[in-house]
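tokens incoming
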């Protein structure tokens, strides 16, 4: 995913999912110059093992096991999200450095593995950022709001499509201020911090997907800092 040419170079983003096997990989790059000539090349890179933390919890079964009606809702919402992330917008909307949606400190990091009552659960695919209820939540970059709804696990949620398979998610909001289909600028207020859905305290769950890969959103802040406008 390109971010713009500068002095003969071109920046790009490649999403590496947290569950990808550590190994050497090769990617093919196909590009067209201003005269329409096609250029092909290949690049190799190595994915190293990441040591994500593990958290073991013991909770009452009523907080863990879902009744049939709720389970049906969760499965329905999961299918909806899966279908959403398969859409590919040809237009690239994002540009420049990414913004942190709220200034609060990290309370739960990316990739945390949870074992609840002895059973492995899905890893934490975003970061939880501390915030007082009502704190404005900002769009990390320019995009289109493709989901604004209340979901069982994530509560009041906003998902932005930034184009080229790039999505950002903002969960557990107390209120949403964007509407589905809205084009929002970088730094626009999407909603306010809350504790809706499966949450025990006010915070923002911020997550990112790049062409299906679940990546640490904080990494975007680090690697695009030099693109600040």
């Amino acid at each position: 995913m390109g971010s713009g040419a500068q002095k003969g170079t071109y920046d790009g983003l490649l999403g590496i999912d947290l569950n990808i096997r550590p190994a050497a990989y090769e990617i093919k790059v196909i590009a067209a110059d201003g005269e329409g000539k096609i250029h092909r090349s290949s690049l190799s890179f190595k994915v190293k093992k990441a040591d994500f933390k593990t958290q073991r919890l013991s909770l009452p079964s009523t907080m863990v096991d879902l009744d049939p009606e709720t389970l049906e809702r969760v499965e329905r919402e999961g299918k909806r999200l899966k279908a959403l992330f398969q859409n590919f917008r040809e237009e690239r909307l994002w540009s420049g450095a990414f913004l942190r949606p709220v200034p609060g400190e990290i309370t739960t990091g990316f990739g945390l593995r949870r074992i609840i009552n002895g059973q492995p659960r899905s890893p934490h695919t975003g970061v939880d950022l501390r915030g007082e209820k009502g704190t404005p939540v900002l769009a990390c970059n320019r995009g289109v709001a493709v989901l604004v709804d209340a979901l069982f696990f994530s509560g009041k949620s906003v998902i932005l499509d930034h184009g080229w398979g790039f999505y950002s998610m903002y969960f557990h909001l107390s209120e949403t201020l964007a509407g589905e289909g809205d084009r929002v600028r970088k730094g626009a207020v999407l909603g306010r911090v809350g504790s809706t859905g499966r949450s025990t305290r006010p915070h923002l769950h911020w997550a990112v997907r790049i062409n299906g890969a679940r990546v640490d959103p904080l990494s975007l802040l680090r690697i695009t800092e030099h693109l600040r406008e």
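note: The CA atoms of residues 32 and 38 lie 4 Å apart.
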